[in-house]
Amino acid sequence: MRKIILYTAVSLDGKIARPDGSIDWLDKVSHSGGLDYGYQVFYDSVDTVIMGRNTYDQVIRFPGEYPYKNKKNYVFTHQTEVANDDQVIFVNHQQIRMMHQLKRQSGKDIWLVGGGQLNTFMLKNNCIDQIRLFVMPVILGQGINLFEQNDRTIPLHFMGHRKYSNGIVELDYGIP
Fold this sequence. Notes:
Blueprint: E1 4-11, E2 15-17, H1 39-44, E3 46-52, H2 53-59, E4 72-76, E5 89-91, H3 95-104, E6 109-114, H4 116-124, E7 130-136, E8 144-145, E9 157-163, E10 169-174
Parallel strand pairs: 1-6, 1-7, 3-4, 3-6, 4-5
Antiparallel strand pairs: 2-8, 7-10, 9-10
């Protein structure tokens, strides 16, 4: 069965974006030696990308072409008046059922891009199998939390870590 992996960067205080959704602060962290921090290997290990509508709205503003164009793309939204396009399928009903169907399909793993609301929704509904966090050496103070208003204690299984000379720490956890 395929895994759903939450793979994202967070500030030291657990923020994935500024209050307006901006991730400009990621560009300010040193990219020493041209490292991609394993991104290309991870990207090649997934064939499906899932994100929330707010995250999608941020992604389509990035310069250049759509960054996940070679993947199956699903955008979870509460909006009912949305039209799919050649890159994205909008999902506004039976989202958990769809997630379980995707996991049962053959293929590579599934990347949960986020954001905070979708991360929490997936966590509460036992859809996330693995969390790979890149803790960035910055404190934002305000912003969008990795998980919004989670009311459950969820034990994690430590799978590994890696530290980089510029202060970035990668943490890898499984959810039993």
